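Extended Data, panel c. Modelled sequence:
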Amino acid sequence: AVFLSQFPSLAKEVLHGNEQVASLLLVVFSIGIGIGSLLCEVLSRRHVEIGLVPLGAIGMSVFSIDLYFASRSLPASEIMGLATFLSQSQHWRVMIDLALLSLFAGLYSVPMYALIQMRSQPTHRARIIAANNILNALFMIGSSLIAGALLGAGFTVPQIFLFTGLANAVVAFYIFMLVPEYLLRFVAWVSSRFVYRFKVQGDQHLPTTGAAILACNHVSFIDAVLLMAASPRPIYFVMDHRIFRVPVLGWLFRLAKAIPIAPYKEDPATYDAAFERAAQVLRDGDLLAIFPEGGITKDGQLQEFKGGIMKIIERAREEGVEAPVIPMALINLWGSYFSRIEKGGAMVRPFRRGFYSRVGLNVGAPIAARDVQPATLREQVARLL
């Protein structure tokens, strides 16, 4: 709204263009939004990918700020027509900034609207969308008033763009800390699209609603991130408490509200709290992920499954929840930077298998809670490898 309201002033007072130049800016802006919206379909891969929201926010801030530097010192001239405007190379940077700014705006807004529709109850969806439109209109009015106040205070149009870009960065950072799911999905999206070539098979077995337990082999420190990338729904992980000490990954898992667990002999309070929290997750109808081996493999082989999953099922049953168990198997991660291939250690040799290596996740059919046993569950996971 701020940019659209300032286009006439930008075209006339900053770029020294006529009405045709102002129209060109609107066309460039509109095309950028359209391309960004279409890119969402390509980058999302069949589901609502809110990991694109932080990417969109970053892009909007970067190109808003660059627009300030591109337009602040343009030389004064007579009012130009469209042909003269396009013949000057310094104007192309302005148009590229506008195009990319609007492209990232499309990446930002489309997943947000899709998320509202996906997570709202059908009986309330129309009212929620209407309320969202009202809020958007109010914020558009508010942003126009702020832009007017800044102009009254002596700000130039490029300075307003700079202010908007910086304010967007601050607000986005606050929102992503307040609702970390966006940032977590962004990390998972980047990891599964650019660090690895990640392919999921059998994702139709992942439930779109209701509680379920995801049981997966544990090959590397990045397993949880890849599982997040595979599921359009948030996942709560039960993880060894020691992984929370790993730099960056520990912060990431705390942000994801992962559930730390320790052996009963080592920390009885953490042990009991983990099962109570796991039962609460299932009671709330969410997805719970567990690595039944109890730790990351040190030899690349599937280890014996421990009995913790049975205790989770029993605690959930006490709460009246019969959550199905979905076997999963991560493949081709052994030998990667995040696996313990270096004499039992991990993260020793970056890109030891090269960059953008192929990894995958195979998802099996759900198993009823009453039919689950550690040995049979291990057999199911082994078949998926």
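The mean pLDDT is 88. This feature is highlighted in the accompanying rendering.
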